[in-house]
Amino acid sequence: MDAIVKMLEKHQPFFEKISRNIYLQAIKDGFLGCMPIVLTSSIFLLIATLPGVVGITLPQPLIDWCNKLYNFTMGVMGIMVAGTTAKNFTASMNRRMPAGKVLNDGSTMVAAQCSMLLLAVTQFTTKFNGSELSVFDCTSMGTRGLFSAYIAAFITVWVYKFCVSRDLTIKLPKEVPGAIAQNFRDIIPFGGAVIICGIIDVVVRNLMGVPFSELLIKLLSPLFTAAETYPGLILIQAATAFFWFIGVHGPSIVQPGIDPIRLANQAENLQVLLAGGHPAHSLTFNMSLVGEFGGTGATFIVPLLLILFMKSKQLKAVGKASIVPVAFAVNEPLLFGAPMILNPYMLIPFVAAGCVNVSVAKFFIDNVGMNGFSFVVPWATPAPIGIFITTNFQLIALVFVAIIILLDAIIYLPFLKAYDKLLCDQEAERAAELGLESDGAATIAANAPAPAVEPTAAVTASVEPTAAAADSKPVADQPEPAADASAKKDVDGLKVLVLCAGAGTSAMLANAIKEGAAQTGENIASSAGAYGQHTAIMDQYDVIVLAPQVRSYYNDMKADTDRLGIKLLAPRGKEYIDLTRDPTGAIKWLRENLD
Prior knowledge:
This protein is mainly α. It has helices spanning 2-10, 12-19, 22-33, 35-49, 60-71, 77-94, 105-120, 146-165, 178-185, 187-208, 212-227, 230-245, 250-274, 288-291, 302-309, 313-327, 332-337, 347-368, 383-390, 395-447, 455-461, 465-472, 482-491, 505-520, 554-564, 573-580, 583-592, and strands spanning 122-128, 131-137, 494-500, 524-530, 543-546, 567-569. The protein has 27 helices and 6 strands. Helix 24 links the parallel strand 3 (494-500) and strand 4. Helix 18 (347-368) runs antiparallel to helix 20.
């Protein structure tokens, strides 16, 4: 097992390179930027539908209003994702542009949205009240059009790069205000991107008889069908856990490629549910509640196992510290505190638990009558509650939750016990070493010549001579070191931004810094955010801290922070978790790293 882990560590740079791929990164960050659409629209949908579950009938105008809000948010998500993906892809491309050449992310964002409409939406005429109207088929404006959104975003940014790097722009005299001149410079790349997507649209429609968005779905449907089988679900979940195990944020690599079909399946499940049928898709957006039950590795039950069944002080302490965060799918305290990342004892259960969970979920959906997930809930919703809600409050879902908790406990317990024995042996060895050192010190103290005066007092003092001496020193004789005082000035007025993948882990350190600032009297402001949503606000901060899960983006981030004169810090896994538990230590750490 150690040999396997060493081999994985050897190839870790390769996997980190995959996670830094600018296309995957743009998709992930672009989708993350639209998460408020997903979550907010789901609230209105729940208001419109869930009261009926308990026999409450809402007024029809209220239901229609909630459905309208859903349709005009989630229903146009594809257009919005085209814009946010283009914006994030532009930021990555700008790091690769020649000196003095910059792409306008506002213009690429709008151009991508227009291009996406060309690729995905069908326009036709119909008669209404005797008049002929021109209408849009909105089917592909939402999640069904996400692939078109990504293609439109990438084509747009590449066209802009081609034009700007070769000065294929309209240049105005220097007397023209910059904002107006920029608009004219964007005309050629904007027009180029739209024309290319328009040509693709014409070719596909004439050759295949379907819009581009439908073509992708048609061509990739065998892949989607395979992904929703037992082997497909297991492979997706195993890859997610495997990447995290070697220290690379697995969801950032695996999920961008399957998010379009996951969301489309969940939307289809919802339509079937509202029509009174059985939602049968298992590959859905909130399947992560099952495969990542408590976080990647399905660690929901692990903190409780550590508290109840482990004997080592380290694992019991980790269990107590992580039980609340893990309940809300923030399992970094467990991953880096136990640790589970690159821990030979944890490889098998870390990968296997999630795979078993999704397999059981598919069995329950296909054979037991449990609904496939239909409503979208936030990722930080405690998994048992989230599963109960998104299956439309089925009691069978609670049975399912109890079964996977039991199965995960069975999977993890033998490996945790083996790891616990190793730690207990190590703790016993350390205790023995400390005992020998203590005995040696006592022997030396006992054999030392006693003072001529008050021998009885000397014998009493020999138990803890160092502590007694320290305690006897007047407080006034122990001034605060000058280095700390000067460092205190360095952090005065500091603004710190902590970034992770979903703003959960980052909030732990941001809160610790706030608490430490209050305890030490420092004037420090700290905020938490998600990597990918930071570009518009990062210039407002003096220090940016990358959580371990996004540490692989350090080089890309360094280029931006150096340009803006911002200090970039990226603590390792255990160090980061220790800082979240030690507010004053977090302040001290900031001081030490601001040289």
